[in-house]
Amino acid sequence: MKKNILGSVIKDARKKKKLTQEQLSKLTGYSQNTISNHENGNRSLDEDNIKTYATALGLTSDDLFEALDIKNSLENKIMIIDKKQTKIDNLLDVYSQLEGSRQTKVYNFAEQQLEEQNSNVVQFPIQNSHEEVQAYLSAGTGILNYYEADKDIVEVPADAPEHDWIFKIVGDSMKPLFDTGDIVYVDEFKQGTDTIQNGRIYVVEVDGEAYIKKVYVYEETKILRLVSLNKDYTDLLFNFENSDINFIGRVII
């Protein structure tokens, strides 16, 4: 089991800079053996290690985490494509072994299934009834104190998703998805039951202040990364050991 998640990213960045492990050793002060273990995921990385590697490679810690996100996203997409292609290949393999008349039957059956599937799509009209609920107002940076926030009355459409809380956005840190005046619906995060899904948007309380941000939890380094959708805002990094962190709820999108 790998002890860190950034090793492969550091290795990719080193190779992109055309540096050997020996050269990176001189830049970081780490032995070649330590670098090898870090890159292979056999040794854990703390915040200082990450910053040291980032500086040596002419990057920031955020750059390394961003590269990790991109790499994971690409790997997931490739995995999905591979699974779909395997199903297609298996189907074609079976189809090619059938006699002509049986191939025709398979094709006709597939067409029939597609028609039935399409005919089962029903459009339901959206009712225009509304209900009034209390909303919590956020501040311009996406930060709010939801315990002491002023309350507002907002109208909620009847087709709104089921939710536990409503927050009203003030500020542009979550543009283009959310802008000032937008309403977000939040499901309560149940401690000990729910798990954080990296890349989803949550309301998170850190040291008494709550943030509406895209969340990434790095268990190996015990780091919480909060990402604004608006690129004008830098990412926020918190250490679980040094900060009081409480996940309030997940934003329903």
TrEMBL record:
Ranges of residues in domain HTH cro/C1-type: 10-64
GO molecular function, one term: DNA binding
InterPro entries: Cro/C1-type_HTH (IPR001387), Lambda_DNA-bd_dom_sf (IPR010982), LexA-like (IPR039418), LexA/Signal_pep-like_sf (IPR036286), Peptidase_S24_S26A/B/C (IPR015927)
Alphabetical UniProt keywords: DNA-binding, Transcription, Transcription regulation
Gene3D superfamilies xrefs: lambda repressor-like DNA-binding domains, Umud Fragment, subunit A
Highest taxon listed in the record's lineage: Bacteria
Keyword set includes Signal: no
Keyword Transcription among UniProt keywords: yes
Protein name: S24 family peptidase
